[in-house]
Amino acid sequence: MNDVLQNIRARRSVRAFEDKAIPEETMQEILDAGLWAPSAMNRQLWQFTAVSNKEKLTALQNALKAILDRPDYGRFYNADTLVLVSVPRDYEHGIADSACALENMFLAAASLGVGSVWINQFKNNCDDARLRTVLSDCGIPADHVIWGAAALGYGKPQNATRENKGKVVYIR
Ligand SMILES: Cc1cc2nc3c(=O)[nH]c(=O)nc-3n(C[C@H](O)[C@H](O)[C@H](O)COP(=O)(O)O)c2cc1C
């Protein structure tokens, strides 16, 4: 099996990150991999907002805590950096493009020894005023929505292996 295929198989979600910073060059490589993702008609309408500032991460956490009414909502598994992928609100391919960009970043991270996990709570809540204030403060345009985010850091996945349940039909 080649390196790319091995990397695809080796990536697993990490949900407990160490207090260890991701070097800036490594983050640049991960973000760059996202920029190389496919997008419908090559529009590339996304913005990737990488937040490693701990005060901003806590502000994002606190906004979600309040909105979700979940006092136990953690700071994104103690991620070193959270990448918020945002796209224009009315863009019909926003979800698909965002998912492609996120997967590219997950795989790039895995190849560089960085753990990752998708964070879904921004999807239904990014237009709540309590969260939008913090997002605006992070430079996310007011007409953008967030379909997914990547928590990144160093750590081990809980499940190193998994059973694949998806069905494949191959007609030849
Ligand atoms: C659309 C989507 C939403 C997800 N949301 C979350 C989330 O909010 N929190 C979380 O811990 N994992 C989340 N995940 C990660 C999945 O739980 C994980 O990919 C799945 O259990 C398979 O495990 P693996 O990534 O280790 O292969 C999400 C994944 C996807 C694709």
Keywords:
172 residues; alpha+beta; 4-stranded antiparallel β-sheet; 5 helices; binds flavin mononucleotide
Briefly characterize the structure.
This protein has 172 residues and is of the alpha+beta class. The protein has a single domain (3-153), classed as NADH Oxidase.
Walkthrough of the structure:
The protein is an alpha+beta fold and 172 residues long. It contains five helices and four strands; from the N terminus they run ααβαβαβαβ. It has one domain: NADH Oxidase (3-Layer(aba) Sandwich). Strands 1-2-4-3 form a four-stranded antiparallel sheet. It is globular, with a radius of gyration of 16 Å. The mean pLDDT is 97. It binds flavin mononucleotide. Flavin mononucleotide binds next to β3. Flavin mononucleotide (FMN) binds next to β3.
Low-confidence regions: none
Order of helices and strands: HHEHEHEHE
Query: Helix proportion of residues, in percent?
Result: 25-40%
- Ions, cofactors, ligands: which are bound? flavin mononucleotide
Q: Overall pLDDT, averaged? A: 97
Per CATH, the architecture is: 3-Layer(aba) Sandwich
Q: Give the count of structural domains.
A: 1
The total strand number stands at 4
Cα(first) to Cα(last) distance is 23 Å
Strand order of the largest sheet: 1-2-4-3
Number of helices: 5
Apparent shape: globular
Sheet/helix structural class: alpha+beta
CATH classification class: Alpha Beta
**Gyration radius, in Å:** 16 Å
Instruction: State the fourth-level CATH superfamily.
Output: NADH Oxidase
CATH topology: NADH Oxidase
Main pleated sheet: 4 strands, antiparallel
Question: What fraction of the residues are assigned to beta strands by DSSP?
Answer: 15-25%
